[in-house]
């Protein structure tokens, strides 16, 4: 959990020197120095309690830009004129992050949706599975209302696996709220970043998401190629969605996950992330690189070491292994580390942005970076 919490470091990517960012963990000093050398304006850093937003005894005007509008943020700003938060009302944010609400909204507004069924008991679940198999789906995906990056969903590959899952669920409860969808083989997983305010809806970026066979996010392709017809269709649909959200009172950044299946059919709303995403924080960095480099990707790895490693040491090994040149390079944008005393090991997550003018070289660097058989001693 500490490693996931430390991904809050991504705030450093979009903050200015005059800003103050609230973190639960002190970033590594060597990593901060590394960012400064790469031209980032390091903001003021204030460490806060996990569950408590700071009080300001001077009663200054404070504008909070949270990753997500939560009930805590809502209470922090309520009835306090000098405090404000950039984002939509908490109740609306909670609804839009609910996969079931999002799907029903897409159906109500006649967006194309994947084949699926809401299920409340065992009979409905079994009937839904039978219908999907009869419709030709070899795989299905079972979803709960909330979850991200592969969490909150179960991919079912055959009937025996379905029966096992069904038995597991009904043993715990005879009434439930689940969504069973057919697994549409995908050609591309697309993400749109929208900015929505009372007077406008803007499409900030369209990227391609790297998703593994279990629905887990692996990274982003910031410079994908899409056909003109697909982009026109996609732009129309996500801006239409943005207008609907605007009418509901949504304000701020919104991420939309979409797919194009292997038949070239667009499904514009798979999930809505009514919050900042990793892509959101990287957009200012990508905006500076995209005028010079044709290929930009983000990826991350997890690894362990027997003894703690300094950031500078790991970076030196990584630089040596990846061998960047004058036309192709990489930048570490998040470095998180946690100790496991019971195992005498240190666990890490390393997030890297790759960029370059030579597609083959960039892909070779990525391959060397994500090779799961490479231990840290081989970096």
TrEMBL record:
| ATP-grasp domain: residues covered | 103-301
What InterPro entries would the database entry show?
ATP-grasp, ATP-grasp_PylC-type
Q: Which Pfam families match?
A: ATP-grasp_3
Keywords for this protein: ATP-binding, Nucleotide-binding
Presence of the UniProt keyword ATP-binding in the record: yes
Record protein name field: ATP-grasp domain-containing protein
């Amino acid at each position: 959990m500490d490693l996931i919490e430390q991904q809050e470091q991504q705030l450093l990517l979009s903050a200015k020197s005059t800003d103050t960012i609230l973190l639960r963990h002190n970033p590594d000093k060597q990593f901060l120095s590394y960012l400064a050398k790469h031209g980032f304006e390091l903001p003021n850093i204030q460490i806060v309690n996990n569950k408590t937003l700071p009080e300001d005894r001077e009663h200054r005007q404070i504008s909070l830009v949270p990753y997500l509008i939560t009930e805590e943020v809502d209470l922090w700003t309520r009835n306090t004129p000098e405090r404000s938060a950039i984002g939509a009302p908490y109740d609306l944010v909670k609804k839009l992050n609910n996969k079931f609400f999002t799907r029903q909204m897409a159906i109500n507004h006649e967006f194309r949706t994947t084949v699926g069924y809401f299920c409340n008991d065992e009979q409905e679940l079994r009937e839904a599975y039978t219908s999907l198999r009869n419709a030709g789906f070899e795989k299905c995906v079972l979803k709960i209302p909330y979850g991200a990056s592969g969490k909150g969903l179960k991919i079912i590959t055959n009937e025996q696996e379905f029966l096992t899952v069904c038995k597991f669920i009904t043993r715990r409860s005879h009434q439930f709220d689940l969504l069973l969808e057919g697994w549409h083989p995908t050609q591309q997983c697309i993400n749109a970043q929208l900015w929505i305010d009372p007077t406008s809806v803007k499409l900030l970026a369209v990227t391609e998401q790297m998703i593994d066979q279990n629905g887990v996010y692996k990274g982003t392709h910031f410079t994908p190629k899409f056909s003109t017809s697909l982009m026109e269709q996609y732009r129309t649909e996500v801006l239409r969605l943005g207008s609907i959200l605007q009418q509901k009172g949504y304000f701020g950044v919104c991420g939309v996950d979409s797919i194009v299946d292997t038949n070239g059919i667009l499904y514009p709303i798979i999930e809505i992330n009514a919050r900042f995403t990793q892509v959101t924080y990287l957009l200012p960095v990508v905006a500076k690189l995209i005028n010079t480099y044709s290929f930009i990707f983000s990826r991350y790895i997890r690894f362990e070491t027997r003894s703690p490693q300094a950031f500078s040491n790991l970076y030196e090994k990584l630089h040596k292994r990846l061998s960047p040149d004058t036309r192709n390079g990489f930048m570490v944008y998040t470095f998180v580390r946690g100790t496991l005393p019971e195992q005498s090991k240190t666990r890490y997550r390393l997030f890297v942005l790759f960029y370059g003018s030579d597609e083959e070289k960039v892909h070779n660097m990525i391959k060397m970076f994500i090779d799961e058989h490479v231990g840290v001693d081989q970096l």
